[in-house]
Amino acid sequence: MPDIKHFDPDAALETVVRLFWRQGVASTGIQDVVTATGLNRSSLYATFGGKQELYRAALRRYMDERSQPTLHRLAEDERGLPAIAEFFTGLIEARCSGEFARWGCMVSNAYAGVENGDPDVCALLDRHHQELRAAMRAALVAAEEQGQLGPDTDLDAAADLLALLAYGVNLRSRAGADASELGSTVTTALSSLGRRAEP
To answer: Distances from the Cα of 197 to the Cαs of 3, 23, 140, 150, 191, in angstroms?
Structure first.
């Protein structure tokens, strides 16, 4: 007879996402997961594997459900620089206020933690980076088509700059940076990409 699960693996994984997101891998033990989910160790191991497998599953879920929809909206938005500005406004708001304030981004946190010693985690981080960069570049292409960028703007370099700026917002917000200061930095970065007024 097949084993019948008496819990919702999807709900359990969402609880684990929040746990790893807030605390990181190094500070989270299996007992923390057991306590947070209310499951016993054997159920966790049978469903997800060990702690590292559980973390990978949580990181994939975070990327699929939180990162990718936002990046898809940005890539499909044809407003150009206003779309990028709105992306950063939403990012700063999410990182500095509300339920997940000061948690940072689970992806950015992984870059700064022991998590990135796992080749499978590194592959997930690289995938996320390529998606982030591609979304930024798509928005920059729209900006260029609408004449919003300076004539010498290198779209690839600008996409790299904006991707790094997003990581910076995530990490600085986790450390307690003020939302208005982060917003000023973003405004300055976007202003540097914009077309200068003719004298």
So the answer is: 68, 47, 19, 10, 12
Considering the domain boundaries, does residue 20 fall inside one?
yes
96-114 burial, b at 16+ Cβ within 10 Å, e below that, comes to: beeebeebbbbbbbbbeee
d(CA 124, CA 88): 22
The backbone torsions φ and ψ at residue 149, rounded to the nearest 5 degrees and listed phi first, read -100, 155
Tell me the one-letter amino acid at 34. Answer: V
SS3 for 77? coil
Structural domain of residue 102, as residue ranges?
9-193
pLDDT digits (tens, 9 = 90+) for 56-68: 999 999 999 999 9
Q: Encoding tokens for residue 69?
A: 């929809």
| Residue showing tokens 């982060």 | 182
| Cα 159 → chain centroid | 16
